[in-house]
Amino acid sequence: MRLIDFFDRSARRDPDSVFVKQGIVTRSYAQSRDATHRIAAALERDGFGPGTRVGVYLPNDWRGLEAMFGLFRAGCVMVPVNARNAVAQNVQILRDNGVAVLFYHSGFADEVAEVRAHCPGIARAICIDRDGDDDAMAQWMAPEGTVARAVPHTPQDLWTLYSTSGTTGRSKGVRHTHLTNLIASMDMLHALEVHGPKRHLVVAPMTHFAGTFLFALTITGGTHILMDSTEPEDILAAIERERAEILFLPPTLIYRMLAAPTREQHDYSSLHRFVYAAAPMAPQKLREAIAAFGPVMSNFYGQAEALGPIAFLPPQDHRPDDGPEWDRRLISVGRPSLLRQVAVQDEAGREQPVGTPGEVAIQSWGVTPGYEANPQATAGAFRDGWYLTGDIGVVDAGGYVTLVDRKTDMIISGGFNIYPAEVERVLLSHPAVIEAAVIGVPDSDWGEAVKALVELCDDAEVDGEDLIALCKSRLGSLRAPKSVEIRESLPRNATGKVLKRVLRAPYWEGLERKI
């Protein structure tokens, strides 16, 4: 079944249950189903049928969510862009993926005008929240009561084109089919232990990883509560007010929630799962989160090419007081999901022994069939039927996978391999540090020297030499930073990942080598 089929199933089973809520707006499954039919019929009326690439340039908005399900009903292919991206990156994504129609929010009207100037292939732009204009979705939709025709489909039909994060360069279009979405959704529901409707608080962008939670939880008739704010105090209050059961956030935002003065003023007992993903979480802060929110924390590991969870660490595996073995597992991404095979391999594709680093590789029907119009990148991402994640990891005797670093982030200093993620975890254990990025910079003696750039908690102070001493005590002199620079903020992409290429660039400018 396709996502739209599951949506219709939920609408038939309980048409009056709430599909989406935002502020004072509440939309039932029946109301949203009718809107998706009107949107799908209008797309077909205008000549945009199955296979048409439709871009979504949206914040978290209930009308945008209905537009997404409407284009799915029409058999179109969704091309999401994150409104927090630079406009130039979104131009590249929309142009490279052949987008013909664009749904957008009026708050991004200026950006969309710039996009359209560089994307002549976009024949129609539809504003989801404006009323009375020619491009307003309310006027553009087919008349009330319209039922869109059913479109033929197969499991291998293209469903969406996600984009790689662009942390190392140009974004690539990642092809996902109805089958890969189904596998990812089933793995997510299994990992979340969800069998029926749940109240899902949506804070992170629904056009990225938060969307995969939204799609999976629609299968079981969930209610999606969209938030306009990412202020920690607002999120904490919303968990209690909305009786939220499922929540996903990147670690940096969780750290800010833990530091919020209102943290102890709210009731979080409704939470079933509080998922952290997109970056490792410092063990000490994870312990604080368990104490604050209860035994509900869960780590998910995913990529655009293999929608999460590839592996997951459930609440029952968060055992910070059960000895060194479980302390080590607390920094892992857990064990492989139900419908994934995961292996740690060497350069020749041989599985590595327990405790030996190698590249994490995946076999699953949930993995992308390849990159859009990029056979070279597709060929480079696979070996003997295994998708190569680019992540370096180790596996323990219990099958728990710990990510050591990104293959491209590894620092070679004096001939030794140094994995920045290990150093970053130590830096994040300091109570003053809220974010850390470790990079290699040119060094005449070592080739590359380890440099740390850190962001501090509000009103916190720490000396760089103290952080170096902390790393030396935990990791030894070889892997400890040679220098530490404290920044007001670190550059991030739209999903919150630190852009190490941006941090590295000034240090390597004008040099022939980049390592």
- Helix proportion range: 25-40%
Please state the second-level CATH architecture of the largest domain. Answer: 3-Layer(aba) Sandwich
Strand content bin? 15-25%
Parts with pLDDT < 50 across at least 5 consecutive residues? none
The CATH topology name of the largest domain reads Rossmann fold
Number of domains: 3
How far apart, in Å, are the first and last alpha carbons?
47 Å
Q: What average pLDDT do the residues reach?
A: 93
Total DSSP E strands: 25
Radius of gyration: 23 Å
Globally, the shape reads globular
Sheet/helix structural class:
alpha/beta
Q: Strands of the biggest beta sheet: in what spatial order?
A: 2-1-10-9-11-12-13-14-15
The CATH superfamily name of the largest domain is ANL, N-terminal domain
The top level CATH class name of the largest domain: Alpha Beta
Main β-sheet, in a few words?
A: 9 strands, mixed
Helix count from the secondary structure assignment: 16
Describe the structure.
- The protein has 515 residues and is α/β, with parallel strands linked by helices.
- It folds into 3 domains: 27-153, Rossmann fold (3-Layer(aba) Sandwich); 192-365 and 385-405, 3-Layer(aba) Sandwich (Rossmann fold), CATH 3.40.50.12780; 410-508, 2-Layer Sandwich (GMP Synthetase, Chain A, domain 3).
- It has 16 helices and 25 strands.
- A 9-stranded mixed β-sheet has the order 2-1-10-9-11-12-13-14-15. Strands 16, 17, 18, 19 and 20 form a 5-stranded antiparallel β-sheet that branches.
- Strand 12, helix 11 and strand 13 (297-301) form a beta-alpha-beta unit.
- The protein starts with a helix and ends in a 7-residue tail after the last helix.
- The model has no long low-confidence stretch (mean pLDDT 93).
